[in-house]
Amino acid sequence: MSWTMPSLHSQVALLGNMESRNQSTVTEFIFTGLPRLQDGSLLYFFPLLFIYTFIIIGNLLIFSAVRLSTHLHNPMYNFICIFSFLEIWYTTSTIPKMLSNLISEKKAISMMGCFLQMYFFHSLGNSGGILLTTTAIDRYVAICNPLRYQMIMTPRLCTQLSADSCIFGFLILLPEIIFCDLVPVLSLACTDTSMILIEDVIHAVTIIITFLIIALSYVRIVTVILRIPSSEGRQKAFSTSAGHLMVFLIFFGSVSLMYLHFSDTYPPVLDTAIALMFTVLAPFFNPIIYSLRNKDMNNVIKKLFCFQKVLNKSGS
């Protein structure tokens, strides 16, 4: 539902008893921004289906490569593995519903389905953002304090950080779920929504603090890398951090555009494009960045394919 936020409207059903004659109950929300079948919705359906399939397969490959290869059993790849796992469910919370609505005559979602989608979408997004922050700190320790890296980033601490990122991402929204923070849903509310300002401020402050932590970490990382005397050492250090930096820029760039604009005058087309950027395009590029730009990951994935071919030949 997130990519049609500017054009979301509700359908209400009146209660039947006399005492509640002047009241109404929201039963579902209608997506008015989605094209109908006769208007060429299939032109959107198949590209979106391809992107979703690519996201799932790409992230499953990364997850499997890290789990199956002992060569990749270190904190950095563990965080990448967990992030890929989160990305699978992050996109699954929204894209399948988009796909079903594109080929359905009735483009709707129930009120409970709407709230559940918002909760899981934002919780998984928060967990991913916290995990990216943890990854930036891990790279900071590895490059800026390499002699103490193994002592600091122990397997126990790595597991704890991964678990805490996921748990905190889900818990942070529990007090907010009653407010339904999406602007189109709030615009349908018949009660006072002024308290949502507190939630908006919390979101903004959280995004800004997280952005600053990661940005300052990478500024320090780049400074240290530039001081490495050998060009080979600099290249190796840059290669391990460039992928994380690109994912960070895509993820937080799109999220910042969506949630840090302090004006409601965004055109619907622009709002939809920004929402599509962080719900669809950002997860689409992540597997490409982590596989194609990472030699170790690339080699492991190739070995997995070669091993599968050998198994197929021996089985036949």
Automatic annotation (TrEMBL):
Protein localization: Cell membrane
Cellular component annotations (GO), alphabetically ordered: plasma membrane
Signal sequence segment: none
Transmembrane segments: 42-63, 75-92, 119-141, 161-189, 201-221, 242-262, 274-292
One example GO MF annotation: G protein-coupled receptor activity
Entry annotated with the keyword Transmembrane: yes
Topology class, membrane: Multi-pass membrane protein
One Pfam assignment: 7tm_4
Keyword tags: Cell membrane, Disulfide bond, G-protein coupled receptor, Glycoprotein, Membrane, Olfaction, Receptor, Sensory transduction, Transducer, Transmembrane, Transmembrane helix
Domain G-protein coupled receptors family 1 profile per the UniProt entry, residue ranges: 58-290
UniProt-listed PANTHER family: G-PROTEIN COUPLED RECEPTOR, OLFACTORY RECEPTOR
Function statement: Odorant receptor.
Similarity-based family: Belongs to the G-protein coupled receptor 1 family.
Protein name, UniProt field: Olfactory receptor
Organism: Rhinopithecus roxellana (Golden snub-nosed monkey)
